[in-house]
Design goal:
about 190 residues; alpha+beta; Beta-Lactamase; 2 domains; two-stranded antiparallel sheet; 8 helices; about 40% helix; about 25% strand
């Protein structure tokens, strides 16, 4: 066992070593544990890659370190742990900080860790950077809205089909010309 974090190293073998390998293999996920007060007790390689802090940087540090200043001032770090404790889980998208001070949009899951008698032992946190994914979704929505705007105002009948001949969109003028609504002909 690592004396600093209590984590097992893979070279130790056994279940603890296998679990350590599994957690560190989650490249796109920051997986870490907190004690009941919110201090970091375990930090995976994915967290190091995503957030920039090494395990040595964060062990024993309070998890509020990863929240932007306005969220810290509003008490969000403590509120998140309390919500997870009361509800059994907290899942949200919120802005988080990297070591270099840059922010990223994170999908965050916090769960309380209870022992066999129901005593709170700490919290697990799983974080995924969804900044680029949400940006792509916004661009797709904007593109779809732009196409819808074109189809609703084009003076000629316009029908958009896929490579198999299935109707993907049907302009308002096409609806008037053919007597079918877009909902009736899609697909």
């Amino acid at each position: 066992m690592d004396r600093r974090s209590g984590s097992a190293h893979p070279e130790e073998g056994g279940l603890a070593g296998e679990l350590s390998l599994l957690v560190d293999a989650a490249h796109d996920y920051a997986i870490y544990m907190l004690d009941p007060a919110g201090n970091v007790t375990l930090w995976n390689k994915g967290a190091e890659r995503m957030k920039g802090w090494t395990e040595a940087d964060v062990l024993g540090q309070h998890s509020s370190l990863f929240y932007p200043a306005d969220q810290r001032e509003a008490g969000k770090p403590a509120q998140d742990l309390e919500t997870a404790r009361i509800q059994g889980r907290l899942e949200e998208e919120a802005w988080r900080l990297r070591k270099d001070g840059s922010e990223f949009l994170a999908h965050v899951t916090i769960a309380p860790l209870l022992d066999g008698s129901g005593e709170l032992r700490g919290f697990s946190k799983i974080v995924r950077d969804v900044t680029e994914q949400r940006a792509i979704e916004r661009r797709l929505r904007a593109s779809a809205a732009h196409l819808e705007s074109i189809l609703s105002t084009v003076p000629d009948a316009m029908v958009v089909i896929d490579v198999h001949g299935h109707i993907l969109s049907f302009s308002r003028t096409a609806e008037k010309l053919f007597g079918f609504s877009e909902e009736e002909v899609l697909g």
